[in-house]
Amino acid sequence: MNLKQVYGSVLMFGVAGLLLFMYLQAWIDEHHAESEEILKQHISNQDIKFYYTKEPKRAPKKLITSPKLDRSSTIFSETVSSQADANPFLGMAASLTLELSEEQQKIKLLLKQVKQVNFSPAMRPLNKSSIKDDHWKTTDEVQEKRRAFLYNFCKKHIREHSPLIHLMRMVSRIYVEDKHKLLYCEVPKAGCSNWKRVLIVLNGLAESTYNITHDAVHYGKHLKKLDSFDLKGIHMRLKTYTKVIFVRDPMERLVSAFRDKFEHPNSYYHPVFGKSIIKKYRYNADGEALTTGSGVQFKEFIQYLLDSHRPIGMDIHWEQISKLCNPCIINYDFIGKFETLEEDANYFLRLIGAPEDLTYPNFKDRHSTDERTNSEVVRQYLAKIPATERQMIYDFYSLDYLMFNYSAPYVGP
């Protein structure tokens, strides 16, 4: 065989291979599109709701102003990158997608399971049968106003939309207590450590909240999360259990997180977050700071928070509550606030029929000698950054401010 014939044979095989590849690619694309369309059609038939925002009224001049909420700014999106979290309206649950399985049998099973999921948009009344006197009358009135406010906010500023949902991601912060049929969505820096102690006692795993250490609370495997159940179990609990969330003023929560994670020795946040923050935002950083990640300044932390190209992703301690707990998708039956923590928590414990001797613990088990983060402490920290950045922080957390009816903070220190 001469050289010309060899070249001809190679060319023929190459063309044949290319044609085969093109055929297979077209076949794969066709079947994938069919599977995706089937999945979208099934999910669109469910009562799962998503929303767009409308423009609220402007805040007074002395207050930090709310960002404009127009219909082009979606609260929920199909995919959300951790590097794009500086926009508070990109999405509540990070990635809201149900990934397609490559195998047709898995897709059919997924479709069957998704069909079972149905979130009711209605606000159901609280069961108050265990309340026998008027002791909690004022607390109850406040609670009903909070519930109505959140429900009406979501109904007014949000319209129906139907992207795919990553259900497991959406319920990944929710703890389950089956005995009292309770679902608690964890919001870090809003009393969550002591709430976990309460859940451990309710589960019968400890006699007192005061005997449970910090490590047992955060690193023990005592409590179940909702995403550990199958879809049927998740749906049943969302539909029938009492769902509770405790929130906090976003600025106070942010400053509290910074003080806790960066102003005290920490074997995780300093090397993981601190090193990246110092490396990108500190000019002429010394070798020790770059090696240990210790000594992050508040202004550097804010630069990181507001950067759309962060050197490292977000963390639950300063993530927006709207993304952690999805309060416009999951209809919470009880909305507690850190500002009235003990009163709200103890009223809730009475509502669910908890033991009479169980009350919410008020101790601070870490950095107990530090002053608690309050409005005055927040003012001191905000004074370290320019007014433009304070406005940007408000923009970042604006949805949390609006849906939980917190007042916009003042621009001045």
Main attributes of the structure:
15 helices, mainly alpha, single chain, globular, 413 residues, 45% helix, five-stranded mixed sheet
Instruction: Estimate percent helicity.
Output: 40-55%
- N-to-C SSE string, H for helix and E for strand: HHHHEEHHEHEHHHHHEHHH
What's the tally of helices?
15
Query: Order of strands across the biggest sheet?
Result: 3-1-2-4-5
Instruction: Determine the structural class based on helices, strands and strand pairing.
Output: mainly alpha
Look at the structure and give the mean pLDDT.
Answer: 77
Distance from N terminus to C terminus (CA atoms, Å) equals 88 Å
Instruction: Sum up the overall morphology in one term.
Output: globular
